[in-house]
From TrEMBL:
Name this protein carries in UniProt: branched-chain-amino-acid transaminase
UniProt modified residues of type N6-(pyridoxal phosphate)lysine: K221
Regions of compositional bias (Polar residues) in chain numbering: 1-16
UniProt-annotated stretches for the region Disordered: 1-23
Family stated for the protein in its record: Belongs to the class-IV pyridoxal-phosphate-dependent aminotransferase family.
GO BP term (any one): L-leucine biosynthetic process
Reactions the enzyme catalyzes: L-isoleucine + 2-oxoglutarate = (S)-3-methyl-2-oxopentanoate + L-glutamate; L-valine + 2-oxoglutarate = 3-methyl-2-oxobutanoate + L-glutamate; L-leucine + 2-oxoglutarate = 4-methyl-2-oxopentanoate + L-glutamate
Needed co-factor(s): pyridoxal 5'-phosphate
Keyword set, alphabetical order: Amino-acid biosynthesis, Aminotransferase, Branched-chain amino acid biosynthesis, Pyridoxal phosphate, Transferase
Keyword Transferase found: yes
PANTHER family in the cross-refs: BRANCHED-CHAIN-AMINO-ACID AMINOTRANSFERASE (PTHR11825:SF44), SUBGROUP IIII AMINOTRANSFERASE (PTHR11825)
GO MF, one example: branched-chain-amino-acid transaminase activity
UniProt source species: Pseudoclavibacter terrae
Superkingdom of this protein's organism: Bacteria
Length: 381
């Protein structure tokens, strides 16, 4: 049983790569969806990344046919050949975004076009086909609309987290870009990434390991970047910290990012500092924070920042706040930065701290509680 949805005008190049794909989505409804009782229990305490909705999106790509066979199907395991290139050469990318239930009952996304664009940039770096922006947006809309009952109620501080991803799907062991690729979207209800998102988190300064190097895949959202962060993350846990901070791979001096979030520092004169490097993932939450700050008249410095500048700035009072930001946690204040050689104790945050005011403004826009003057939200259902 199937039905169709919106189409997208477009053409296909001679190489088979679809530009602005003209595709219809077929829909196969899950014959055994979760019961209302099961769904309500999950929504009451969703955690993060533990429970998944009833459906998923799949779109295939080949060199010959470009993007084709867009479909919504029941959520379930994949049948993947052991020789599939994704297992052997790590050719995969992903995104993360949220769907928010607003007070009127409608469901909105927050800047999903930016996720579409970042997925394209990641695809380019990983030698994968670029998914057209409108096809990305439609894939998200399709999943949210069919699984709308999984979107938590407004006002609960919960969301539906969406995970679009793309993998090499060719059964071939030769070392080259895959000629068969699969794009998918899955979703899970999500509570706060940290138990108390306003509580400062302590972070461990990794001095032995780097997240990414110059010319590498640091600016792409691919699994290998996260895999390389897991061992130092374990080191962070062993030292009583919840996150790990990476420095540059060349000089081991300049701030990069945390294992999965960007860094922002605030100076005593209100200036906003954030690290600049071609091996940092361009954060959509971070960029939104910077735009809100710029709109409020704050000075923005997007530049290289050394760990010594942070340490000395806290010591002399010129750096008064530090926070991490990303899709999952939104904004989390940073308490201590620990290393074997020193500890940076950032000033305590209050409800009136700049970072907490920014967080309130950003989450207010996302949840439909404040006016969206920037045009960032898009209705999904």
């Amino acid at each position: 049983m199937s039905d169709t949805s919106s189409t997208h005008p477009g053409t296909t190049t001679q190489a088979g790569r679809t530009e602005g794909a003209s595709l219809e989505f077929s829909i196969e409804r899950n014959p055994a969806p979760a019961s209302a009782e099961v769904r309500d229990a999950v929504l009451a305490d969703p955690g993060f990344g533990k429970h998944f909705t009833d459906h998923m999106v799949i779109i295939d790509w080949t060199v010959a046919d470009g993007w084709h066979d867009a479909r919504v199907v029941p959520y379930g395991p994949l049948q993947v050949d052991p020789s599939s290139a994704v297992f052997h050469y790590g050719q995969e990318i992903f995104e993360g975004l949220k769907a928010y239930r607003h007070g009127g009952g409608e469901v909105f996304g927050f800047r999903p076009e930016r996720n579409a664009q970042r997925l394209q940039n990641s695809a380019k770096r990983l030698a994968l086909p670029e998914l057209p922006e409108e096809l990305f947006l439609e894939s998200v809309r399709q999943l949210v609309q069919i699984d709308e009952q999984w979107v938590p109620a407004a006002g609960e501080g919960k969301t539906l987290y969406l995970r679009p991803f793309m993998i090499a799907f060719e059964n071939f062991l030769g070392v080259r870009a895959a000629q068969t690729v699969r794009y998918m979207v899955i979703a899970c209800p999500a509570g706060s990434y940290f138990s108390d998102p306003t509580r400062p988190v302590d972070i461990w300064l990794s001095q032995e390991y780097s997240r990414a190097g110059a010319g590498g895949t640091g600016a792409a959202k691919c699994g290998g970047n996260y895999a390389s962060s897991l061992l130092p993350q374990e080191e962070a846990y062993a030292n009583g910290c919840e996150q790990v901070l990476f420095l540059d791979s060349s000089e081991n001096r300049y701030l990069e990012e945390l294992g999965g979030m960007n860094i922002v520092l605030i100076k005593s004169d209100g200036t906003i500092l954030t690290p600049l490097s071609d091996s940092i993932l361009p954060g959509i939450t971070r960029d939104s924070v910077l735009e809100l700050c710029e709109r409020a008249g704050r000075r923005i410095e997007h530049r290289r920042i050394t760990i010594d500048e942070w340490r000395e700035g806290v010591a002399d009072g010129s750096i008064v706040e530090a926070f991490a930001c990303g899709t999952a946690a939104v904004i989390s204040p940073i308490g201590k930065v620990k290393s074997p050689d020193f500890t940076i104790e950032n000033p305590a945050v209050t409800a009136d701290s700049v970072s907490m005011r920014i967080r309130a403004e950003l989450t207010g826009i996302q949840n439909g509680e404040l006016p969206d003057l920037m045009g960032w939200t898009q209705r999904l259902a």
